Amino acid sequence: MTTYAIGDLQGCHDEFVALLDKLDFDPRRDHLWLAGDLVNRGPGSLACLREVMALGEAATAVLGNHDLHLLAVARGAAREKPKDTLSAIFAAPDRERLLDWLQSRPLLVRRRSREQGDIVMTHAGLLPQWSVDLAEELAGEAETRLASEHSGAFLEQMYGNQPACWRDDLDGIDRLRGIINVFTRMRFIDAAGCLDFAAKEGLDSAPAGFAPWFQFPRDDDPWLLFGHWAALQGETPASRVRAEALDTGCVWGNRLTALDLASGRRTSVPSRQC
Known about the structure:
This protein is α/β, with parallel strands linked by helices. It contains eight helices and twelve strands.
């Protein structure tokens, strides 16, 4: 069995199918890890959801910020944005089945390997101050709320840049928002682990006193897989942890990339987007 980790689809369904063909992917034999943001901006968000859901246990996807935005809009907790490409999902006859499936996706997946140690995938990365065990526990807190009868209220209060700094004594919606922001929005942080939400481009856009989260050391040594940051183009320069950037900007006209977790080999197909 080969496991491939793929970066943000963001509605690039044609490229997703082309990449699976290039990999000779067989769901009876192989497995996919998808780094979140299955939807939005590209033209095939509905097809992407259907394709991944149809793979069943052969595919594992984590939630990204665009996936959570889709859920918030669908549940009446937020409004569509001018650049959203989600309308086909809302009009689909199977929308509720797709949305329920998406809402049950995790924020973090973890696999322990004798050869490679802990392999962890989230959408945006892992805060250096969080051990993998703690991160898994915190992800579970937010996932439990998303699966509860209070998920609508949670989605309604999910947006916001505060708290920007994690504290173990956070509670209520501040705690949940802090968890969501780390897993789905993090790029630059400072030495204390406080997040900056303004800078979204390449490394040169770092605010004073901030650096990419992967340039800070950790006390443990997991292999961290993440998407979210297309401007990195799959690179993690000056990284002080084992980190693999998977988002290579397909929706922005670049390419869609898969990483073979066993060999480390990358396979890409060119974008078909303008």
